[in-house]
Amino acid sequence: MNSDLVGPLKALLKTEKRIVLVPHKNPDGDAIGSCLGLQRFFEAHHHTTHLISPNDFPEFLKWMPGAETVINFEKNRNEAEKIIASADLIFTLDFNALNRTGAMQEALEKATCPFVMVDHHQSPENYAEVTYSDAQMSSTCEMVYHLIDRLGAASEIDAEIATCLYTGILTDTGSFKYPGTTPTTMRVTAELMERGARHTQIHRYIYDTNRVERLQLLGCALQNLVILKPYRTAYITLTQEDLNRHNFQKGDTEGFVNYALSLKDVVLAAIFIENKEEGIVKISLRSQGDFSVNDLARSHFNGGGHINAAGGRSDESLEATTARFERILPLYEKQLNR
């Protein structure tokens, strides 16, 4: 963490504050873990905190310490808007553009208090008084650990904070296999284990507790797999009918795209998921090596993320979206076959 940020952050936290913590819409393990970990740290320092999520988060994350306190903006809008309006300080975690909060964006833009951004994605917007942005970090949870450490309080990380932060690092590194995992990441996770994070239990909660319907949905997704050998690309589609037939729950498709990426010689993988309620197709992109799915998502699918992991969306039909995806691949043929 840049030492120039420590002074301003300490000044903001010098007196007791009403702090709101916000993850991005459709929060994942890193977003929820970083918010819950930082929330518990602030509460130990006698700040009043509220964690407001733009919408619900996956069931497989609801075992996390403090998860029961999360306010769902989508279901409790009036209460959430009042809390945001009266906040002294707002922390946004694991995103760097307010439009990543969906319907919550308007309430955040109306807020008059200072913002603090903690995020590891590229191209941050300029809405925060303190911006801790580092695209080289494995996860926002790793950044929260460094933030607490630079505030001189690493010794205050208890088992609950450690559990939350370990969960986010585990999920955002793909169990430590993604390129963003560094020696420092491993040292941080070792420290979190020493602080009380039970790694085998966390791994079981995240990866080894499946519903029959989710496994059947995975089978459906793999049946829909398309391989485009000339472009070293594979993609999966899931229609709204597929989701409904398998009793889809939020988070069920987490990790599905990695099955496409695991194929021999595949450099680029995608999953296209139809959401008729929102009138969009949700897109997740993954890559190997130096092929940037962040650039692909930003250029063609109103999204972004990291070099090897990004997301986007399309307002076209599922068929039109995948057809457009196939049409743009020739633009990247040389990069994909490098």
Q: Mind explaining what this structure looks like?
A:
By secondary structure, the chain is α/β, with parallel strands linked by helices. It has 2 domains: 205 residues, inorganic pyrophosphatase (n-terminal core); 124 residues, Diaminopimelate Epimerase, Chain A, domain 1. It is 40% helix and 18% strand. The chain has 14 helices and 12 strands. The strands form 2 sheets. The chain has a 6-stranded parallel beta sheet, with helices on both faces. Strands 7-8-9-10-12-11 form a 6-stranded mixed beta sheet. α6 runs antiparallel to α7 and α6 packs across α8. The relative contact order is 0.10. The mean pLDDT is 96.
Which features does this protein show?
338 residues, alpha/beta, single chain, Diaminopimelate Epimerase, Chain A, domain 1, 6-stranded parallel sheet, inorganic pyrophosphatase (n-terminal core), 6-stranded mixed sheet, 14 helices
Q: What is the share of helical residues? A: 25-40%
Number of continuous helical runs: 14
CATH superfamily membership of the largest domain: inorganic pyrophosphatase (n-terminal core)
Uncertain parts: none
Oligomer: single chain
Q: What order do the SSEs take from the amino end to the carboxyl end, as H and E?
A: HEHEEHEHEEHHHHHEEHHEEHEEHH
Average predicted local confidence, pLDDT: 96
SSE blueprint and pairings:
Elements: H1 3-12, E1 18-22, H2 29-44, E2 48-53, E3 71-72, H3 77-85, E4 89-93, H4 105-110, E5 115-119, E6 130-133, H5 140-150, H6 159-172, H7 183-194, H8 199-207, H9 212-223, E7 226-228, E8 233-238, H10 240-245, H11 256-261, E9 268-275, E10 280-287, H12 293-300, E11 304-305, E12 309-314, H13 318-328, H14 333-336
Parallel strand pairs: 1-2, 1-4, 2-3, 4-5, 5-6, 8-9
Antiparallel strand pairs: 7-8, 9-10, 10-12, 11-12
